[in-house]
Write a structure and sequence with these properties.
about 30% strand; globular; six-stranded mixed sheet; alpha+beta
Amino acid sequence: MLKKLVKFLENNHPDSNVNDYLDAKYLQLTPPQLKQIADALSSGELQIKPASSCSADRFVFHFGNTIILVQKDTTDSSAVYQAELSWETDFLAIHSTRSKGKGFYFIAFEFDDDYQVTLKETDKLLEDQVRNEEQNQALIDKAMPVLKGFMSAISE
């Protein structure tokens, strides 16, 4: 799926952050691995750690139809990480052949040490794409427990 995402970015957003995806460590979790993290969290075997305790500077986290590019924040902001969720979906994607096919919906966000999320603006929009803040927040809210569990699992 990462190859499709990179191709989509190259075709639809050629001036975007494609190299951030290519330079990041790629981690894909299978459904059994996701269940293992969820079970460890619910049993108390895995404790949530602050985001700042995660030693990864940049990684691409892939599960299901979702890819999240996560990068340590290097600004003076209260955010610890900047992130971009890419969700594969069906809609008219602009390809060189201009065919209907799979595309990606992007949500930019940042989160602090307690994984509190702030949505950010994104320039990765396609023509006639409808954006809904509440739906974007709901998608992030579904993804964050998985990301939080994963980051805690790899933290020192």
